[in-house]
Amino acid sequence: MKIGKFKEDIIKKIILGIFMALSLTLFSSHTFAEEKLTVQAVDTTLVEMGFSSEEVKKISEKTKKQIVESGGEKADYTVEDVTLTYQSLDGKVYEVTDANKNEIALMEKKDRKIAQLIDPLAFAGIDEEQFREFQTFSSGFNDRAEGDWYGSTYITKVGATSTNNIYEVWTEWTWTNGPKAWWTTDTVATAWDIGFTAQQNSDKQYRFVVRRYADGNIRTDNINDLKILHDQYGHQAKVPIGTFLQQSGGISEKLLINKSVKGTKGLLTVYAHPTTPLGTSATIGPVSIDFSTFAGYKWSYRLNINL
């Protein structure tokens, strides 16, 4: 009797195990299907908000969900003056093209030698071999097809108060081939027009940085690792650069403007990558961003909002 009871218990446990395994498989398949549907639903919602299918393909999954959660609709805006420039230590700015990029590379090396004389300590532990030359450059805005870097800015109209319309500005960037520059920090900044007021809420403000390294390790930074600094006419964030293989990041800002304001207002986005360890310092004015004591590359583009 005891042996029979023992066998019966074993059989019950086997049957229970099979049931649990089947349940887990079904649950996993159900969860995957739900997640896939959720991604599709987010994309569909973005199209309903006014984004084109091509735009939706280029927005990161993290930002897509945030835009949908914020609600509203795509604002009426255009993008222009998309440029890639190199700023030398003497403050002169040169547009980078395929025709002059080799000349710019020589200028970059010359500036680096001058910077090393200015601040030798900043170059401690760094040799010229650690400054990777860019093989290709994207034009900047939403250009996933080519280049080591691309960025984009999207604008949504998310609501209104009794006196103001509320817009949200979403800026993203991606290094498809990281600069491997552990010794420096990049800057991403947006400057807005007179009439806009930022609805600052740094503790809850959307921002993220995700890095993928050559060994496959992925790191998502805490929001405190990407601090947003506010000025009257814009904001900027310091982007930590390291030895990552690829990096993506994004920030946002809610902007208020009085309903009585009509016509077209502008915004300017700049992503600055220094090529010396001297760092960057950005001064922001109405639709303007100026960098001093800076040598490096800047991707920039202007957005015009029709109110």
Description:
The protein has 307 residues and is an alpha+beta fold. The protein folds into two domains: 1-48; 53-306, no CATH class. Helix content is 26%, strand content 37%. The chain contains four helices and 16 strands. The strands form three sheets. Strands 1, 4, 5, 7, 8, 9 and 12 form a seven-stranded antiparallel beta sheet that branches. Residues 12-37 and 139-146 have low confidence and may be disordered.
In short:
26% of the residues lie in helices and 37% in strands. It is an alpha+beta fold and 307 residues long.
Please outline the helices and strands.
Blueprint: H1 2-48, H2 53-58, H3 61-70, E1 73-74, E2 77-87, E3 93-95, H4 101-118, E4 149-160, E5 164-175, E6 185-192, E7 197-198, E8 207-212, E9 218-220, E10 228-231, E11 234-240, E12 246-258, E13 264-274, E14 281-285, E15 288-292, E16 296-306
